[in-house]
């Protein structure tokens, strides 16, 4: 393996990984192969990627090879082209023809999932999915063999959705970019895919994700937010603090390659021949892989209508359609071929004559020079894709039209419509009449208008080259990686479970502070009423054990009201702080009230009505009401609808019940809370602590604190309260956490003041189990005994006041609220 320093002095290495290598192999002997360029826009685009990288290609060589002699010989030939083959062997059919092009491709292009073939039990969704994963692993193996530290890995397309995850599992430091050449569908369509979540999660492990257009990128982000529940931001996707950058990089071509080709004598000769061949006729050109997405039948129908309605054009126009064979072993493609042949035959039969046929349909690929000649002599280029990632054929046509300035008729559903829309005539390919009219408009367009349209498009094609696309992507990948490096450092640490448990065992006076909602509650499925809130059943015995341990005090500090906490924790020997500390009790005592006299609660009824109104209109949302606060929660509702409703709800509140009230409004991730201006958890906890110490007549300071919850941002001051370096306004020295026995643990928060983060409440529940059974015999007591004496002496004359007397009422100006994010 080459060291990083060594590799820095060289050109940046780039591993381009795509299903298809830029060259496809044909066997010419036992150990000899011929190589020719692979068809398709992905290859064309990548050929133009900057030469400043030391690029190696990893991909399938276009053939199945099983014998070692053949594999070695091919690998050698490919090495000269900087290509490294991935031999897919037995998985190829179910991977490529099956999962990639029979399942993913139609989904990505809004064509829906095909029915499973129930007769063929050897080829099911599952078998194809398994083959897909195996194929991705084969790519992984080849990359591992060739990876050098510092390499950038740029993965391409829907064939390799698992590769980012596999690679990161192998080495989390590998810099990975992934680019999708096809469109990304609406979330409603993607949702139908059985393995949708796994696939999305894998792609999100990459550092940078690229799409051709803003539409595709936003479909992707939306799909992730809806299916995975992650957060979509202007940067991309944020999940547990990990940011996966999502950005738009429209691909281009290498325009000079086409400009130069058009000057070649061979191409000029071909142009002359073609002009003679079609003398007296306008040429409409179509160049597409014979793929359903390209809308060839729709193109033929539009052309048929044009001929039908424009008799005078019938023998003056010809449609030359190059239908490049593709994915021949996928049943849908076979059907398409006969459909297209049928249509071409019908139209030629209707409008042709002995000497002329309106459609010249070729089922073959053509060589590059001939393709350029065709592009150059065409009067109109007709692209009717039903959906297309970009469609580079449109770009190539423009590059070859410097002399002729022909017209591009372009489907509005091709990515290229976003970039060439100004110069092209855009059509909806499903609308046969519109296609027919566009053909007419293009054929009749004045020279001036053609000139102007061509100028606009040519300018774009020249400046937005494949080189620029590649450079932009790679430079963003560099930036993304260093940014995400910095961000990862800010992410809270993983909870060191063993340390938490060991320190717990060794301490003598522990305090466990827990949030309630989302921390101790049973994960909810169908929550409509606050009354439905239940304690996670897995916690019952654990909590009993913890609460009955004389060395442990458990406090639940919640926004919930007294009734709920009473109902749920009545049977435990536990401390409860309701409404963020407005009320406190231990379960054997009475509630101590802390609502200041003259507190303005006039807003409560009106707010309740607004919450009721929105709850009724937002399926699966609910609200909790207590004496001083109300929370509307939409975490079980459709996320986007919930967010939109939350915005409206806030407008209603500000315009009505809270317009003149002294309240704090807090917008949580999936909730809106309105509560009387009071204290945050961090402020309340000091007083609660003193009250606990007093009531329990503690003789030793609290020497261990574990604090965890799903707290609102404003309440996160509870996490910092216990930090030894934070000055506390306590009248007593009730804490002794100098030895680092303090664990603040946020649940699933990307950005938090807590020192540690866990993924979900399950982790907290799990840890509490472990604390409950922790072996306390290992605790050393001699030190703490002497500390206890000190503590008692220090506090002998302390002025003990009940917690209720410590409450200060925070004064807020009328209408003063927490900043809300809308
Ligand atoms: O490799 P194949 O199965 O033979 O298919 C050829 C390529 O088709 C798709 O191309 C896409 O990429 C183009 C460049 O970004 C874009 O202009 C076009 O709209 C897309 O359809 C496919 O995404 C590639 O992986 C294939 O290699
Ligand atoms: O006989 C042919 C005709 C065209 N092409 C190339 O195939 C690519 C098609 O790319 P596009 O983005 O239009 O669509 P895709 O086929 O990738 O979906 C273009 O670069 C064409 O030059 C080809 O390789 N052989």
From TrEMBL:
Pfam families in UniProt: Glyco_transf_20, Trehalose_PPase
**Entry keywords, A to Z:** Glycosyltransferase, Transferase
Q: Which domain of life is it from?
A: Eukaryota
> InterPro entries given for it?
Glyco_trans_20 (IPR001830), HAD-like_sf (IPR036412), HAD_sf (IPR023214), Trehalose_OtsA (IPR012766), Trehalose_PPase (IPR003337)
Its Enzyme Commission number(s) read 2.4.1.15
Molecular function terms, GO-annotated: alpha,alpha-trehalose-phosphate synthase (UDP-forming) activity
GO annotations under biological process? trehalose biosynthetic process
Q: Which PANTHER family match?
A: ALPHA,ALPHA-TREHALOSE-PHOSPHATE SYNTHASE [UDP-FORMING] 2-RELATED, TREHALOSE-6-PHOSPHATE SYNTHASE
Q: Which family does it belong to?
A: In the C-terminal section; belongs to the trehalose phosphatase family. In the N-terminal section; belongs to the glycosyltransferase 20 family.
Please state what the protein is called.
alpha,alpha-trehalose-phosphate synthase (UDP-forming)
Origin species, per record, is: Brassica napus (Rape)
